[in-house]
From TrEMBL:
Residues 186-208 are annotated as: Disordered. It comes from [Clostridium] aminophilum. Residues 216-376 form the Phage tail lysozyme domain. This is N-acetylmuramoyl-L-alanine amidase. Residues 27-161 form the N-acetylmuramoyl-L-alanine amidase domain. GO terms for biological process: peptidoglycan catabolic process. It comes from the Bacteria. One of its GO terms (molecular function) is N-acetylmuramoyl-L-alanine amidase activity. Pfam families: Amidase_2 (PF01510), Phage_lysozyme2 (PF18013). Transmembrane segments: none annotated. Signal peptide: none annotated. Residues 193-208 have a biased composition (Basic and acidic residues).
């Protein structure tokens, strides 16, 4: 049995409380509630005390940070069941201190992301929530299945609390969709980007089922590893120039030359119908990998994960693998730089290495990076607040005469309330819609707009006022 640990880990303090190497392969995940809004450090300290006599493989703290306390190869002491812990990855999640022991949104989202990562590294394509204790414990999953279990089945405890217990089915569906690249309605998920370099400046990305734009997903992934906003922004500016942050992007000149779409090319590579992926010299993916050896490494990495060559999460992990193993100097610059331009130039000349490295190109890529910096680190909060306040004022002033917005992206969710913490109704097609109310809410820096149809709310981040 081969085991690995999650690259999502941001803090490590290994507990002495475990039983050594597992005697069973990993085919279960058991989420727990901590019963307290802990930090990764405080949970690690607790698990290290000689008096505790308990541990978990991972913990997710109140800010969504992942701690590693028992390596996945070892059996933790977490579920009051040796048999369960031998085959389960156990995850303690920060929660409220009383029933229903609710998780913060950031904790729940990180739990889903960590489950996806655990499944992928263990070769699983489906996460199951059967719900019934006896049926679950007697079920023998097939090699591509992972099963959710809960602590309350093995002890007189509420764990993981009613809040999480009521969402176990939703968690299983969410993770399975992500593992297979599907949207909530079962169709293939896509990210929005312009078809031509000249169009990228006005590109918008959809608020997908994670509740986050693709840009924010990439930003948070890199920030967790780099910890320097200048470094992350400089790197993202280069990715944006290369692919528009679209993970299934085929180099535009080849798309036109061959008369094939990004999705069609990706499907043919995935299905094995196109055998020239390694040698066709066409740039592909977030970083527009072109040289045969790098494309071969990407292809093999995707195959090991059992995911599409265009999978966003896989490509981010591959980028990080490339950077740490082959470009440590670039990583060092990203971590220590004090300007976006410094990182942008380093990534351009030492990682991406396009044919055109002129001052015009350097300046443009740095400008892209500055936009990401301002969006997520600079004056983003103040700008977003002003934008929300302006929109709210406009809506209040025009309540008797509603205004129009144009939805600019595919796969924008209609939600039951003003925020990503509300349920999804369906996708709204691009077009012009009447808005009758605007409110602030989680997941949109420009606020949420209520549709005149009464069907629900949409994020104004992806709309243009008519």
């Amino acid at each position: 049995m081969n085991f690995s640990n999650s690259t999502l880990t941001e803090y490590t303090r290994l507990s002495p409380h475990h039983s050594g190497l597992r005697t069973h392969g990993i085919d279960r995940i058991t989420p727990h509630c901590v019963v307290g809004q802990c930090t990764a450090e405080s949970l690690g300290e607790w698990f290290s005390k000689s008096s505790t006599k308990a541990s978990s493989n991972y913990g997710i703290d109140r800010n969504g940070r992942v701690g590693l306390y028992v390596e996945e190869k070892n059996r933790s002491w977490c579920s009051s069941s040796a048999a369960n812990d031998q085959r389960a990855v156990t995850i303690e999640c920060a929660s409220d201190g009383k029933e229903p022991y609710a998780f913060r949104d950031v904790v729940y989202e990180k739990l889903a992301t960590l489950c996806v990562d655990i499944c992928r590294r263990n070769g699983k394509r489906k996460l199951l929530w059967i719900g019934d204790r006896e049926r679950t414990l007697s079920y023998e999953p097939n090699p591509e299945e992972m099963v959710l279990t809960v602590h309350r089945w093995f002890a007189k405890k509420s764990c993981p609390g009613e809040w999480m217990y009521s969402r176990m089915g939703e968690l299983a569906e969410k993770v399975t969709r992500e593992l297979n690249g599907l949207t909530k309605d079962g169709s293939m998920a896509t990210e929005v980007s312009a078809d031509r370099e000249s169009d990228r400046e006005s590109r918008a990305s959809a608020e997908v089922d994670t509740g986050k734009p693709v840009e924010r997903m990439i930003w948070e992934y890199l920030m967790a590893r780099i910890g320097n906003a200048f470094g992350v922004a400089g790197f993202m500016g280069n990715l944006y120039a290369e692919s528009g942050l679209r993970s299934n992007n085929l180099q535009n000149s080849y798309e036109k030359k061959w008369g094939i779409t990004d999705a069609e090319y990706t499907k043919r590579v995935d299905d094995g119908a196109y055998a020239e992926f390694l040698m066709d010299r066409a740039g592909y993916g977030l970083a527009q990998w072109t040289y045969w050896s790098r494309k071969k490494a990407l292809w093999e990495f995707a195959k090991v994960r059992g995911v599409s060559i265009g999978d966003l999460s896989m490509q981010l992990d591959f980028i990080w693998k490339e950077l740490t193993e082959r470009y440590p100097g670039v990583v060092a610059t990203m971590k220590c730089a004090s300007t976006v331009r410094e990182v942008s130039d380093a990534v351009l000349t030492r990682y991406e290495k396009p044919a055109d490295q002129s001052e015009r190109v350097r300046k443009l890529r740095a400008e892209y990076g500055e936009r990401f910096y301002n969006m997520y680190q600079g004056n983003a909060d103040e700008t977003a607040l002003k934008g929300i306040q302006n929109l709210v004022s406009q809506a209040d002033a025009s309540e008797a005469t509603p205004f129009l917005v144009k939805v600019m992206v595919q796969h924008l969710n209609i939600r039951t309330g003003p925020g990503t913490n509300f349920g999804r109704v369906r996708f709204i097609p691009p077009g012009v819609y009447t808005i009758v109310e605007v409110k602030e809410g989680v997941g949109s820096k420009y606020g949420w707009a209520r549709l005149k149809s009464g069907e629900g709310w949409i994020s104004l981040e992806f709309c243009q006022r008519e």
